[in-house]
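Submission sheet (multi-component)
Chains listed below:
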Amino acid sequence: EADIYQTPRYLVIGTGKKITLECSQTMGHDKMYWYQQDPGMELHLIHYSYGVNSTEKGDLSSESTVSRIRTEHFPLTLESARPSHTSQYLCASQPPGRQGNTIYFGEGSWLTVV
Amino acid sequence: QKEVEQDPGPLSVPEGAIVSLNCTYSNSAFQYFMWYRQYSRKGPELLMYTYSSGNKEDGRFTAQVDKSSKYISLFIRDSQPSDSATYLCAMSAYNQGGKLIFGQGTELSVKP
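Outcome: structure written.
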């Protein structure tokens, strides 16, 4: 398993504010992912990274951006939050080699934009 | 049409019942199949992982994959109230890494 730490767990913020959701892991995993989950809906991949200075957009279009300056950190940023960004954001990492394509998630960040 | 279909439930069973959770999919390239359990306001927790077709058992949990029918199942024997959660199926193709396609999740409630 992987220990994935996400902060903040819960955030209520006003429209137009800039926010950064933090994600960190101490296992040295190269591959990390951000998924978005609206209540009662599927998880959708919004960003992924296969290593330092490598980031790609996922299948679901998102106005957020990510960075990967260090292996252990994979923060997600919204430059100007809108109510449509209200959702749960889940960070995950993938151990190398074993267990195929399994990934392990953090506890998630619940974002509410008012 | 969604690549992965999962009955959202909710599903309510008495304690001790056998639970069957199912997903169908349309992409024949999927080779890795996973089941995650998600408690309210928590991140998904990996329960079972299966590669290609076949069965896999882990304690009270059994995962089945039938690639010919594009159908996967998770069976929970002797269900407990602590099994009450949302169960998510997820799958990916060989070269897709952790870019998983998830079902909508089935909400399960096990009544004492």
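Remark: The mean pLDDT of chain A is 93.
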